[in-house]
């Protein structure tokens, strides 16, 4: 059995919880007990080369983008946000380009873990309205999370022939409004 590692600082605690590895490091954690927020400042430290996100070639650092924030899973009842300045690298092939973060997609304002949790809440909730209320999100924010989840699912989808297809039509609303459902009978 693995021996638990004692925590030395709050920064170390969040580095372990976020699964951060060098060059990423928690530099500051701000807890506001009045606003019920936790803000985790993360930085790409050190001078080692970072990889170009396009070709994975190690490249020298160029500079950093402006500070950005991402909503993360709540820390108990505290809304948690990750704040960082994303480094840019100078790639010979692709020019000056922003690196990726291990916690979120390029343009997202939510971490991957938060987006996954939001979809789980949607599955458990009675409606999108209820799910967005639980997570304190707007319609637009929830729609973007759903759109990215569908895109990730389509990327993972295997395109193989379907041997047995089941087809059903469901009527909805008044009149003749139908939705056709096609299902892979073998996989469910």
From TrEMBL:
It comes from the Bacteria. This is Transposase. It comes from Candidatus Uhrbacteria bacterium GW2011_GWC2_53_7. Residues 51-94 form the Transposase IS204/IS1001/IS1096/IS1165 zinc-finger domain. Transmembrane segments: none annotated. Signal peptide: none annotated. InterPro entries: Transpos_ISL3, Transposase_Znf.
């Amino acid at each position: 059995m693995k021996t638990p590692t004692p925590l030395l600082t709050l920064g170390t605690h969040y580095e372990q919880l976020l699964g951060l590895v060098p060059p990423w490091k928690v530099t500051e954690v701000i807890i506001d007990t009045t606003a019920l927020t936790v803000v985790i400042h993360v930085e790409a430290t050190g001078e080692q080369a970072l990889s170009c996100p396009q070709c994975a070639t190690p490249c020298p650092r160029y500079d950093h983008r402006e500070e950005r924030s991402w909503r993360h899973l709540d820390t108990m009842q505290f809304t948690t946000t990750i704040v960082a300045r994303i480094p840019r690298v100078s790639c010979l092939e692709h020019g000056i380009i922003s690196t990726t973060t291990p916690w979120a997609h390029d343009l997202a304002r939510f971490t991957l873990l938060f987006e996954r949790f939001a979809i789980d809440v949607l599955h458990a909730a009675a409606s999108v309205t209820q799910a967005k209320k639980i997570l304190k999100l707007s319609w637009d924010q929830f729609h973007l999370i759903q759109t990215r989840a569908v895109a990730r699912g389509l990327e993972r989808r295997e395109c193989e022939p379907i041997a047995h297809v089941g087809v059903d039509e469901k009527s909805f609303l008044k009149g003749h409004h139908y939705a056709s459902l096609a299902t892979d009978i073998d996989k469910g």
